[in-house]
Write a structure and sequence with these properties.
By secondary structure, the protein is mainly alpha-helical. The protein is 66% helix and 0% strand. The protein contains 5 helices and no strands. α2 packs antiparallel against α3 and α3 runs antiparallel to α4.
Length: 148
């Protein structure tokens, strides 16, 4: 139907031959797909952890979710939803999955920077987020510019 992830599947819109040289995925496209799948698993776990906070699973010593600040509740629900949807999109290697993942990662970085009491983040974790974002852009660029 749509050419949403043609760059990931090794086909280009200008290749009208229907096969031949550009049919098999090449090295950078394979790296990108594996990177997206790894990010998908990580974001799936992150989304499930947010749902565990909402349901009060494993939060001994923490007040119930309903008794916490409304801003904390809103942030937790936001990440519980967007992380799982982004994980599905990343697993499918679709463009919208990458966009949602970038939205989730950048919004978490910004919220942690501006509201560290609501969403604490260590410098190592922030560095890992930034490294993952840069690796995503690099792998996407390399896969798109790879000669077939």
């Amino acid at each position: 139907m749509g050419g949403d992830s043609d760059a990931l599947r090794g086909t280009r819109g200008d290749d009208v031959s229907g096969g031949g040289v550009g049919a098999a995925p090449t090295r950078w496209r394979t790296v990108l797909v594996w990177m997206l799948r790894l990010l998908s698993v990580l974001w799936l776990a992150k989304g499930l952890l947010a749902w565990a906070v909402i349901f009060g699973i494993g939060g001994e010593g923490q007040p119930p979710f309903e008794a916490r600040l409304l801003s904390f509740q809103a942030i937790t629900v936001y990440f519980a939803v967007i992380d799982l949807v982004a994980a599905v999109g990343l697993w499918l290697t679709s463009t919208w999955g990458g966009v949602l993942w970038l939205l989730a990662a950048i919004s978490q970085l910004l919220l942690a920077f501006f509201f560290p009491l609501l969403l604490p983040m260590t410098p190592w974790l922030a560095g890992a987020y930034i490294a993952a974002i840069l690796a995503y852009f690099l792998a996407t660029w390399a896969a798109d510019n790879e000669s077939s």
